[in-house]
Amino acid sequence: GQQVMQIPQYQHVQEGEDFTTYCNSSTTLSNIQWYKQRPGGHPVFLIQLVKSGEVKKQKRLTFQFGEAKKNSSLHITATQTTDVGTYFCAGPSRGKLIFGQGTELSVKP
Amino acid sequence: NAGVTQTPKFQVLKTGQSMTLQCAQDMNHEYMSWYRQDPGMGLRLIHYSVGAGITDQGEVPNGYNVSRSTTEDFPLRLLSAAPSQTSVYFCASSRTGTSGGTYEQYFGPGTRLTVT
User: Distance, in angstroms, between A33 CA and closest chain B CA?
Assistant: First the structure.
């Protein structure tokens, strides 16, 4: 079945440093979604990418969808302590949504 | 709108006991799903439903049953609890497109289950 792999599993950064997490699918995706989960909370939807090569920005967050629609990335510029949490990508597979393992981001002030 | 609600928030079971985790949504979403979250494993899909009366298995369905008698409710039943089912369980819902693809998932607050 389809697999969605995400790396790295953990990332520790100093406040102000940049952060990137990568998502790779074993099959071509019709779209990809990104979620953020704060410690002790539940996943919250951030964005959905649909088009090949699409790039979307939300303030300091930049999301990219690969040309082949099999990979995606989330880049955070100048991290802040409020960025702490786990970031998940998710792709559809035969009518259901499959999540990657997530990247846990910690930010040292 | 309350969104997606889950009960209970915490539960401790003994091995072999059964129980039902409740999930309800008031957004008239067709798609509902259950995930379990374990350290380092991400969110793994247990069961999902694309509408009332329709359910299907996800990645890790063994030991769990679901039913979808109404659009609003999607309970998850643990038939005979095992320590390996100790986890945080999330219910989620979304609307579906005409092609069957899913839109943004709305998650409930989760149920933290411990099986001793």
Answer: 7
